[in-house]
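Before a colleague's protein record goes any further, I have to sign it off. Alongside the sequence sits a line of tokens, each denoting a local backbone shape. I want your independent view on whether this chain really folds as the tokens say. Where you disagree with what is written, explain briefly why. This is what I was given:
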Amino acid sequence: MIFGHSDDISIAMTSHFMKFSGFWMATNYVEQKCRNFALVYTIIGMLLLGSVQVVELYYSRGDFGTCLYILCNVLSLCMSLFKILILLEHKKDFFQLILYLQQKFLHGIYDDHEKKIVGACKRVCAFFICVFTCCAHATVFSYVLSPIVVNIGRNETDRVLPFQMRISLISLTPYFEITFVLQALFLYQVGVCYFCFDNLLCIINLHVSSQFRILQYRMENMQTVDKEKDSDSLITCKSHSTDKCYSIFKTCIQQHQALITYCSKLEKVFSSFSLGQVLVFSVLICLGGYQVLMSNAPFATRMIFIFHIMGCTAQLFMFTYSCDCLIQDSTNIATAMYAAPWSRLPMDKDGRTLRKDLILVILRSRVPCCLTANKFFPISLETYTGIMSTAMSYFTLLKGRTVDTT
């Protein structure tokens, strides 16, 4: 089973939650049935919770603070459902990306220096995945624990659910307990889908970036002319070294082309996914900040959105940082290519051909591999600052609206 016994904590955690959401590959018929059931269960849970929140939004349309609270929940639900629908559309290409990641990147043949690059990549992945996963779990558990705290000391007819429902009998035993458990289970499923796809995208981006750094190392350390004391043997050695250097160079070009093709497929699968992320992030951060700083919500509700903002900020930074690494490392191929030992090779047939091909590699590297927001603009760390600035602008407008209302 793919990633079944990985010693990489980021890979192990991500594959576990992807299986839990139902969006993962199966090795036999039974596993495939379990995956299909989990996926259907996930989508049904999202639709049910979404319909409950839409109904509640209609009945609460006169309460500005409550409407913003429900709107934040609806956006999070829609974002999770949107991710699933996008990946279902590109399911075949998505699984091919994962298989290539396992076969070529995780199980590649590396020397000691290249192993250090891959090891550093795994440590960064583990840090991001653990932080974001913990924040997401804290948010989900806060949604569940908040009504439990609020219900302490209340009678049977005055109890609240994680997501309120306009049904009179729902607060009575055992309907209340059954509904509470179902909402908690559906909520956890939504939370898993909210972070597991982002975790996998981060892992893929960072591992592709590490492959570009490995390629830079291989280009800079292509075998050069061996020094010989005997001038007669030096000519033969130079010719042999040029042949070998050009052979290594062609292997590097093939690896570069494979990485470019992989990035193109990554762009095809996650382009619309990225656009949805960028559009929703600023609104979610703004609404979460409003619930923490401006609303009259109880402390338990504020704790929900404290963890929510922490999770959104970590998710946004993880997303934009991994995309920025992809841009920077793919562009640095040109610098590494120029630093290769081409200048010490003789001007024979292979030497001239290598120099011409080197120019083409440098020109191609000036166009970075990147993940875009559906072709509108590339995702980078500048996107992070832009989204945070937009979120602050939205928050200022909401703050002014609240002051005018009071």
